[in-house]
Amino acid sequence: MRFMSRMFMVLSFVAALFVMGCGEAAKPAPAPAKAVEAVSVAEMAKAAKVELVPFAEVNKIVGNGVYDKTRGTLIDARPAKVYAASHIPTAFLMSDTEIATYWPAFEKLGLAKTDYIVTYCGGVKCEKSLIVAKYLKEQGYTNVKMYLDGMPDWEKKNYGEITMDTAKKFFDKGGVIFIDARPAKIFAKSSIPGSINIPDTEWETAKVNLPADKEALYIPYCGGFKCEKSHFVAEQMVKLGYKKVQVYAGGVPE
Fold this sequence. Notes:
CATH superfamily of the largest domain: Rhodanese-like domain
CATH class of the largest domain: Alpha Beta
Structural class: alpha/beta
CATH topology of the largest domain: Oxidized Rhodanese, domain 1
Order of helices and strands: HHEHEHEHEHEHEHEHEHEHE
Helix content: 40-55%
Number of domains: 2
CATH architecture of the largest domain: 3-Layer(aba) Sandwich
């Protein structure tokens, strides 16, 4: 009897362990944590009520390459070094991390609170242009929009603009062709050393003097920031298939 009693106790204990084990196995596995979807810059702009504009709209603002606030004002929200290397023609610099630094220069533009302003930066994942756009709206500017596709999109479709420091670096390094878009008589008097002359007013006959290599870097320039000649030549070169055209807007005066 003692043996049978002990056997019964052992079997009961084993049965209990089995039931407990089955009970634990039957518990459903915890549901995986739901991933938080990232909010795109486009969605953030919509939430901030900042309208997005396409390339064609920005191209209208650029116009002939000479700044005219009646067409609109472009603001580059990227760092100064990036802006210097290439930016959209006529654009002013206002880095998102140094807005206070560039604010005095912006105020000197004398824009009305209702004037048209478009910010841009490094493409659809770049928040810098939104940061600057929101800041401008906070300061009371009511007609602020964003070119979300930004510089990557612009560079695929049109020419860029560089600062004097960048132009000088290219000049010192060598191997880059500068193109003087002024008339031949003015070019003969003074030009950036090593330049070739492609006058904008003689484009149809002068374009045959352009180098054949369409992958090389070319830097058109003319008589300064109020001179549209270099922009005309740059635009025509892009139409001919030249891939790397950067206008040095400061030109000879600078």
